Amino acid sequence: MIKDLQEKFIMLASGKNFKNSKAFLKFKKSFFSENKSSQPTNADLREIYEELVFQKKIVRNKALEKAMLSRSIRTQSGVAVIAVLTKPSTCPGKCIFCPTEKNMPKSYLSNEPAVMRAIMNKFNPYSQVQSRIKALELNGHSTEKIELIVMGGTFSYFPKSYQKKFISECFRAANDYPVSSPSSSLRGRLGGGAKNTLSKIVSKKKKVDLTHEQKRNEKALHKIVGLTLETRPDYIDKKEILNFRKLGATRVELGIQSVYDNVLEKNNRGHGKKEIVNATKLLKDAGFKINYHMMPGLLGSSYKKDVNMFKELFSNPEFQPDMLKIYPTVVVRNSELYKLWKKGKYKALSDKNFQRMIIDIKNNIIPPYVRIQRLIRDVPVPSIEAGPKVSNLRQIIEKESKCKCIRCREIKGGYKAKNKIILDRIDYAASEGKEIFLQLVSPNKKKLYALLRLRIPQASPPSQGGGWEGVDLTNSTPNHSSHSRPKSSKHIFGSFECESPSNSSRPMAIIREIHTYGKLADISKRDKNSLPAMHAKASQEGPQHIGLGKKLVLEAERVAREEFGAEKIAVISGVGVRNYYRKLGYRLKDTYMIKSL
Ligand code: SF4
Ligand SMILES: [Zn+2]
User: Fold this and answer.
1) DSSP letter at 186?
2) Which of 263, 330, 331, 440 is a plausible cystine mate for 258, CB 3.0–4.6 Å?
3) d(CA 199, CA 307)
């Protein structure tokens, strides 16, 4: 129904002659608020517009196209985010708050924006990626660096063959773009693309080869620099980590919801704290970035308990996620919670309490090395029976927020060439290892230009018998004693195996994330002569590719070598960034980029 509304809007808008974006935005705002619906992004609308043009329901309207051009928010974090959905499937979970809708991926509602896009593309990964690149591109976003996010519930629950095919098709779509060779049933929709002409379409459906498509992507114009998969903590084990790495994943979104066993149990999560702690450690040791999904307001929790839960996340080294998505519990039809709420056995968080809680969490709890990715889920207001309904929470609490999280400090478009940049470092313990968070910031640390996460998985000194064994897939019983280390032991980051000298007890370090912020600078426009200076005399394009990333890598190498005696350093690198690390002396070993120190 929301799609119908958006179509209706585009039909109306296509008959108008907008003078500028401001006039268009005003029209958009009043239309959607009159219809009591949240405002879609211009990129979403652009996709529907293209669809309607293709179906000949409307004719092209140049003024409208121009007015829809958005000043890029999505790519201001340095990458173009493309979310794709897996096909509808059941989930092993029976969480009481989770809606089940026919023909929808578990936990998703057919009127959420990302889901609507997937439906339009019949859940075909190739078509989803290409139409999204097209929509972003048409709206003025740069799409050379793509962070691909695979949504749709528990990815690990799909058969391995589907997983592999899905991801291969995503890579192939990025590699082929703007040429398109989707499966025959989907060719029509993509035929009307920007640079895409029907004559370019290859009709044969090619055999999918993941490794081949990944290799192609290293040199493709649209590089997948990060790949996020969504799963449950109880599905993470060494085998799954190996699988995720082969697929090219660099970040994992874990459905945590609560860290308290009694709350997890009441909500029928099917796993407890133990599984969360275990998955967190395994993933971090393998270099993944971790994004926790948390749900305040669950059955069995309270305001106080929720706030304490967020404190626990960052005071207990067993958790320490890198990112957070905070989705307050809402009651939707087709869920068990709905029945309980109807019987008066559940009381949802009010808008006011949720806002108060978020301000408290942001201002007093979130450390500077964490990024709050999202504050509320895109559940359309009409679907919410009870629970927080604010969809523009960030704007509402903006004035009161003193949040120091990554997102609130990213420089976005506000970069000036004369800006002074300093190196700052935060060390913290996490999952039996040590995290070193390096950030390039303004002198007051309020503006963030670039960051790096370095992990020493087993941080205790080797001389005390704590030499790091990594995730050793060759031996199911972990061996933490350097004295009993087998000759030629294998250290494994996910699928990476490194033959280490038999007498070596020096640890290995792994870089889990490097990110430079600011307006996306196209890789092709990179200034080769730019420098790694701290007081960056940067190009006017923004801080990407002026050597800030390189500066951080060099510092991480120094820390790993000098402070921890590491002999090697690995980077969990997105497929599309491998060449960047090759230039810094790293070599591909299975799925990791490795350098001897
Ligand atoms: S695991 Fe996720 S998708 Fe599955 S039932 Fe629970 S919330 Fe829903
Ligand atoms: Zn923040």
Assistant:
1) G
2) 263
3) 58
pLDDT tens digit sequence for 131-146: 999 888 887 778 899 9
- With a 6 Å cutoff on the Cβ, whether 106 touches ligand 1 is yes
Alpha helix segments (H runs only) across 93-229: 113-120, 125-138, 160-176, 187-190, 210-219
The full set of domain ranges for the chain reads 1-70, 72-231, 236-409, 422-596
Q: Which CATH class for the 236-409 domain?
A: alpha beta
Could you report the per-residue pLDDT of 4-54, keeping only the tens digit for each?
788 899 999 999 988 888 888 889 988 887 877 777 878 788 888 888 888
Q: Any idea which ligand is nearest the CA of 371?
A: 2
- The answer to whether residue 332 scores a pLDDT higher than 70 is yes
- The CATH class of 422-596 is alpha beta
Which residues sit with Cβ closer than 5 angstroms to ligand 2, an ion?
A: 372, 403, 405, 407-408
Name the more confident of 495 and 423.
Answer: 423
Q: How far is the CA of 400 from the centre of ligand 2 (A)?
A: 12
The Å distance, Cα 299 to ligand 2 centre, comes to 26
Q: Using a 6 Å cutoff on CB, does residue 91 contact ligand 1?
A: yes
**What is the spatial distance between Cα 13 and Cα 52, in angstroms, rounded to a whole number?**
12
Atom in ligand 1 nearest the alpha carbon of residue 269: 6
Query: Of 45, 47, 52, 1, which is closest to residue 27 (Cα–Cα)?
Result: 45
DSSP H/E element including 245: helix 238-247
User: Is the confidence at residue 189, as pLDDT, over 50?
Assistant: no
Of ligand 1's listed atoms, the one at least distance from the Cα of 153 is 3
Residue 441 has a pLDDT of 93
